[in-house]
Amino acid sequence: MNARSDQSFPRGEELPGHSSTFGAMLQEFNIAARLLNLDPGIWKVLTSPKRQIIVSCPVQMDNGEIEVFTGYRIQYNITLGPAKGGIRYHPNVSLDEVTALAAWMTWKCAVANIPFGGGKGGVICDPTRMSRRELEALTRRYIAEIIDAIGPEKDVPAPDVNTNDQIMAWVMDTYSMHVGHTVTSIVTGKPLELGGSLGRREATGRGVMIAARESAKHLGFDLKGAKVAVQGFGNVGSVSAQLIAEQGARVVAVTDWKGGVYNEKGIDIEKLLAHTQQHRTVEGFSGGDPLPGDQIFGLDVEILIPAALENQITMANAPGVKARIVIEGANGPTTPDAHRHLHERGVFIVPDILANSSGVTTSYFEWVQDRYGYFWTEQEVNDRLERKMCEAFGDVLQTALKFKTDMRTAAYVVAINRVATVTRMRGMYA
Ligand code: NAD
Q1: Residue 319 above 60 pLDDT?
Q2: How far is the CA of 234 from the centre of ligand 1 (A)?
Q3: pTM for the whole thing?
């Protein structure tokens, strides 16, 4: 690979059509690209989205009027296989954001070492103000508009913010109606009854638990008895807390959108789950003391798991972090300056593209089972996930040690190296 000076990689904001989110992705990318001495030509290929599709989706609303929604589907890189990534319904969806998310999916799939490229979709809409019928009509029209670009070997969508297994069932049905036969492998995150995978719901939290266990092993301590704090008690946070407690760790604090709970002896996670199902929040749980949400990051714990939203650990709270390990269950929970600060203080941070990659790894298992037409037991899914996650963790850790760098940069090095190697092997067509 050719050497390349630091100055010669443009930052995101210098690229036409790209602002904040893609720029943030590019800054992380460039740190690893420099370490790898990435060839300038390959740099151009890996920082250019392969395909950006913009569609207009007319939908007849319940009041009889016609609305037109803008939808995007980005296939950022398909060197390793079909594009893979969720569909997001949100008023703030933008081309810049969807492109950055598709790039991150490319690196996440490459770190997980699964044969997928990276994609993402989004529709500018407010699903909280739409009826079920309107959501179904929008989903079917959006899929019809991008139908030529997607397929089990081209691009395989999945749920993301504000989309769920019912919406994936409509995606699958719309695609199947167009091609004239049932194609379950067009989308993942489906209900079990129509080709979903056992273990998918728990997969991301299971991967977070494995990352915590392997990190503790690396730092020379055992999960048994270790104190853990979890921000967010949704899919990722609750399953992480449950599985980490099963390993003998003490989950002493959990917070969510409304409040939190603290118990020095360890929270009974099953009881907290029952409380949350009833009250939609962990606040008010009788098995511990109330904990204000903003205190979660300063607690005296060994392991901290942000599993809620992006930009939660910032320079405002990072200096107070006492944990030895941070496992990023959420996407982008740590700001770049907070990450640098924590790393310099010796905190071991497992980055999102590795820590929560078990979700997409199990989506890959779902796609394999659909194509195979033969379904695995939950134990088989979990065993395969355990192997894949341990391999991915080991690859990133060895890379971090080899390059004397942090785990985030190492994860990018692993990912970029895999995609760059295959790009060079395949060569430039025509
Ligand atoms: P979820 O909606 O099930 O849960 C989100 C949790 O965060 C809820 O408990 C909510 O109360 C809490 N929360 C919201 N606002 C908060 C705030 N201001 N302070 C503290 N807590 C707050 O979502 P999820 O599926 O668990 O996803 C969580 C994160 O993990 C997201 O960043 C998501 O992109 C990422 N992720 C999820 C998966 C997956 O398989 N579900 C896979 C990869 C990444």
Answers
A1: yes
A2: 6
A3: 0.94
